[in-house]
Write a structure and sequence with these properties.
7 strands
């Protein structure tokens, strides 16, 4: 059984969806751990309610190879899925889990990527730019913010009267439908 760690910083709707998906649909993998850098984040309550172990780690702890790798070893982690994780993943983790750290970004990268582009900031920018479409990008994590090889993209139309909240709802639907499935596909082809 492959073991997944979810790294999250926020509300945790994607984390909850991933945990639930693997419990119901995939007997080859499980979410063994949620790592969170914000003690007040909603993901902690969501993961706890689902009985998934959660560890709150400071930025310094996450960037400390001894501490971080000890946690990954303790939980025997095979793959990391970022779900609203707002810190850069340290180089030593990227090296250790080469090709096994995924991120989901709520735009069609390379558009609306990079520092400061997350959550509602992206949706507001998409609406302000009068984009005709937006979507999600699932990519491997590299040392470049929102860099790394793109694994999957899909889009939805942005209607002329859509607000940032409307766009956000469309993006959440795409995330819920596709992210767990793509994680499962990557798990099935990794050694």
């Amino acid at each position: 059984m492959k073991r997944i760690a979810i790294f999250a910083s926020g509300n945790g709707s994607n984390a909850e969806n991933i945990i639930t998906h693997f419990r119901k649909n995939n007997r080859d993998a499980e979410v063994a751990l949620v790592v969170c850098n914000k003690p007040e984040a909603g993901v902690i309550e969501r993961a706890g309610r689902l009985g998934t172990d959660t560890i709150v780690m400071t930025r310094a702890d996450i960037n400390d190879p001894v501490k971080m790798l000890a946690v990954m070893d303790e939980y025997k982690i095979d793959l990391i899925a970022l779900a609203g994780f707002l810190l850069m993943v340290p180089a030593f983790l990227i090296e250790r889990y080469k090709g096994k750290i995924l991120n989901i970004h709520p735009s069609l990268l390379p558009k609306y990527g990079g520092k400061g582009m997350y959550g509602k900031h992206i949706h507001e920018a998409v609406v302000a730019a009068k984009e005709k479409e937006t979507g999600i990008t699932i990519h491997l994590v590299s040392e470049e913010c929102d860099g790394g090889d793109i694994i999957f993209q899909t889009s939805v139309p942005v209607e002329p009267n859509d607000t940032a909240a409307d766009v956000e709802a469309k993006i959440h639907a795409l995330e819920k439908e596709h992210y767990p499935r793509i994680i499962g596909e990557i798990i099935s082809v990794t050694k």
